[in-house]
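Support request, please re-run this one:
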Amino acid sequence: MEIRDFLHRVADELTTTQTALVAVREEDVRIKNALREWQSAQSARHHYR
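Re-run finished. Output below.
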């Protein structure tokens, strides 16, 4: 029974970790897209001066 409890805890921790990883990857994409948009806006602004 102890081994089964341990395996359940490990599985729960793995699920939590995977969920956090997905959130971090989504935030990474959001930040990269925002940076690209900002860089494009800055480039366009400097281009039209």
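The chain has a mean pLDDT of 94. The two ends are 72 Å apart (CA to CA).
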